[in-house]
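Pilot study result, target chain (151 residues):
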Amino acid sequence: MKTYAGGGASQKKAQPPASLNNGAKAASGREAIDTKRTALRIAAIAKGMKAQKITVLDMRAVSGFCDYFVIASATSLRQLNALSRAIEEEMLKERQKPLSKALPNDESGWVALDYSGVVAHIFYKPLRDFYSLERLWSDAKKVRITRKAAP
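Predicted structure:
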């Protein structure tokens, strides 16, 4: 038990919330499975829309703001917008809304869809190469995307 000066009385030192320990989110097993399932579902939707270089990163050990990244490339801005729309529409069918909506006809070359525990990054290919999130977050483990994850 640690004592604090000034109060005279002994008090236990307050512990930080479990969500701040080791930079990882505190999640029950069910929540971890649900976020992984969401990430793999988004990857499957992207694959169905002919996205390229689809990668799922397990961010739980390296980040405190989400559990998974899904990163995908589009060959054109038109495909980028179609991908973001398809992901939003399919996830809405499963009663999952992103925290913010993608702009229609976005020309930035990078759309991020935040599903709380999962953040989907859809890039126009040249911008993906430039920002290289996989290199930036190289400590994150890659999640294997199986054929079973298809829609």
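One observation from the pilot: Residues 29-149 form a domain with the Beta Polymerase; domain 2 fold (CATH 3.30.460.10). A full batch analysis is planned for the follow-on phase.
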